[in-house]
Amino acid sequence: MKTMIVRAPAGLDRLRMEDRPDPGAPGPGEIRVALHGSSLNYHDLGVVTGRMGAPDPEQGRVPLADGAGVVDSVGDGVTEFLPGDRVVSCFFPQWQDGTAQVGDFAGTPGDGIDGFAQEVAVRAATAFTHAPEHLDAVEAATITTAGLTAWRALVGDGGLKAGDTVLLLGTGGVSIWALQIAKAMGATVAITSSSGEKLERARDLGVDFTLNYRETPEWGRAIADWTGGLGVDHVVEVGGPGTLAQSIGAVRVGGHISLIGVLTGASGEVPTAALMAKQARLQGLIVGSRRMQQDFVRAIEANDIHPVIDRRFPLDRLADAFAYEQSAGHFGKIGVEW
Known about the structure:
- By secondary structure, the chain is α/β, with parallel strands linked by helices.
- Helix content is 28%, strand content 25%.
- The chain is built from 10 helices and 15 strands.
- The strands form 3 sheets. Strands 3, 4, 5, 6, 7, 14 and 15 form a 7-stranded mixed beta sheet that branches.
- The chain starts with a strand and ends with a strand.
- The mean pLDDT is 96.
């Protein structure tokens, strides 16, 4: 089967399409999936450029945490899936339910284990969930990482309810998924970007307030002013140390900040006095469990949500897709299909 591999030392120029043996029939408790789509995440870019993880020096690494396709066959004991079912992968296949149990990427496809940049995968049935019936493979694949992260931030951890106010940073995959979730649940949404064009696109998706952070460096105060001085109920914080102080300024007393991203760095100062004064809950998170994903799939189907796909690339142009991600010109998700 055709498989995309990144070889050590990692780099976009080290991505190669290779032939690997077909994985064969599924064993007990496993399913065989014909894969047709994936989407790119910041984590995937880190793996293929060598900033995160390390490819096996002998075998390399099959990248991409997200995978969606159709069940070819099922092994003994599998009752949840049937041949022909449309499925989507789980970021943490070892985290089935309950509170957070995983703090590393040793079991994450495309990092600690081979990912889904290949034609066929045989995995445990519990490494997948059903995909929303109305989504194609690329759309469904966006659920695994970006979509589930946004869902957990707002709903699983944040307890989002109708009438809440939400602040989103930027217009990448997590933020646009969070926008769609928040609007479907009746929330009021503000979003930041340095691009007027992207802010206009966000307004077309129902955003209530937009802010160009280059034009307004003290955007935390501006967001608080937009709420009449109260601050927002939820912040989906994808920037990290470079934006956290502004996010604390934007959140209401007793509000919730989901710390997801490290786009501005992996460490930095936390304005502890300001955080204490806000009595806000600052919670780090990495994606979510299989049970959360099943809940999310039901919500997507109930609200007929289609994720925003900026561009689609064929699998043999995966390096080009990652180069486009590096350019930061995308709005929503970048898809890969085959």
